[in-house]
Design brief:
Elements: E1 3-5, H1 9-13, H2 16-24, E2 28-32, E3 34-36, H3 47-56, H4 61-69, E4 74-75, H5 81-84, H6 89-92, E5 100-102, E6 114-117, H7 136-147, E7 150-154, E8 159-161, H8 168-174, H9 191-209, H10 233-236
Parallel strand pairs: 2-7, 3-8
Antiparallel strand pairs: 1-8, 2-6, 3-4, 5-7
Helix pairs in contact: 7-9
Length: 247
C-alpha cells in the first residue's frame, strides 16, 4: 500500500453532509487530493528507513498545509501534469472539512485522481485489458466522465504517497520511454507501447460507442494527450462513426 489516508478521511466521508450529497446523486465522484513527501533515506528501504518515512507522513490538514508551505510536501507526481493537474490544490488549502467544490473541467484524459463514490450498477468497471501497471485508473475515469459522473473535490482530507523506489512493474513500464518515435524501433515490443495501443483503441471505442453525457467536460485548453503515447501517428488515429442520438 503506497498511499496513506489522512486520519479524518473515513469520518469525513461518513459525515451527514457528505453522505447526503452522495445519496442525492448516484453519479457523484469525490476527488480526494493526493500529495507526496520525499523519502528520508537515500540508499535502502530497510526497517530504519520505513520508520523514518512513517514518522514524517502528515496526518492532519494542518500538518499537510504546513509541510506544503515549507516545501516538505507537494501535489502528487508534479512531473505528470495530466495525472492530478485538474485537482484544485490551491483551493483545497482553504476548504473546510467535509466541504465539496465542483471541478469544472479536466485538463487531460490522463487525469487519475483517487475517488470516493457510491458503488452502483452503472459504475464503469476497471477494464481487464489494463490489469497490472498502466492506464487502468485513467481509462475508468474517462468512462465515468463520459457516462455523466460529476467530479467534485472533498475538503479537509487527503492521501499521501509513501515514498519508495520504483517497483518492478514501473521499471518495465519505463523501458523505451525515451525512444525516438521516428526511428525504426518497433514500439510495440515495449510494455508501454502495447498498453498505449490498447488505450488508443479503448478511447476510440468510448468515443464511438458511448453517448457523451459528460457533466465534467474537458477544458478548452486541455493538454495534448497524444504527445505522451508511445505510438506512431497512424496508431493514434480513431475512425469516427456517427453516434446514436441522445434520448
Amino acid at each position: 500500500i503506497d498511499f496513506w489516508l489522512s486520519d479524518n478521511l473515513y469520518n469525513t466521508l461518513q459525515s451527514n453532509s457528505v453522505r447526503q450529497q452522495l445519496a442525492d446523486d448516484s453519479q457523484l465522484a469525490l476527488v480526494v487530493p493526493a500529495f507526496q513527501i520525499p523519502s528520508q533515506c537515500r540508499i535502502n528501504e530497510g526497517h530504519e528507513c520505513r520508520t523514518a518515512n512513517i514518522a514524517h507522513i502528515p496526518r492532519t490538514k494542518e500538518d499537510m498545509v504546513f509541510m506544503v508551505n515549507h516545501q516538505q510536501a507537494s501535489a502528487f507526481d508534479p512531473t505528470n501534469k495530466g495525472g492530478h493537474g485538474s485537482t484544485r490544490y490551491g483551493d483545497w488549502n482553504s476548504m473546510d472539512e467535509g466541504s465539496i467544490m465542483t471541478i469544472p473541467c479536466v485538463t487531460s484524459n490522463r487525469y487519475e485522481p483517487y475517488l470516493a463514490f457510491r458503488f452502483c450498477e452503472d459504475l464503469p468497471p476497471f477494464q481487464d485489458h489494463f490489469t497490472g501497471y498502466g492506464k487502468n485508473k485513467m481509462t475508468q475515469i474517462m468512462h465515468m466522465r463520459r457516462n455523466g459522473y460529476l467530479f467534485k473535490q472533498l475538503g479537509g482530507s487527503f492521501l499521501v504517497h509513501y515514498p519508495h523506489m520504483d517497483s518492478k512493474s514501473r521499471k518495465e513500464w519505463n523501458v523505451g520511454k525515451q525512444r525516438d518515435k521516428k526511428t525504426d524501433v518497433e514500439l510495440l515490443t515495449f510494455k508501454r507501447g502495447r498498453v498505449d495501443k490498447v488505450f488508443a483503441e479503448f478511447r476510440c471505442w468510448l468515443e464511438n460507442e458511448i453517448i457523451d453525457d459528460s457533466r465534467t467536460p474537458m477544458c478548452s485548453d486541455a493538454l495534448d494527450d497524444d504527445e505522451k503515447l508511445l505510438l506512431r501517428s497512424e496508431d493514434k488515429i480513431c475512425k469516427r462513426v456517427r453516434q446514436p442520438a441522445k434520448n
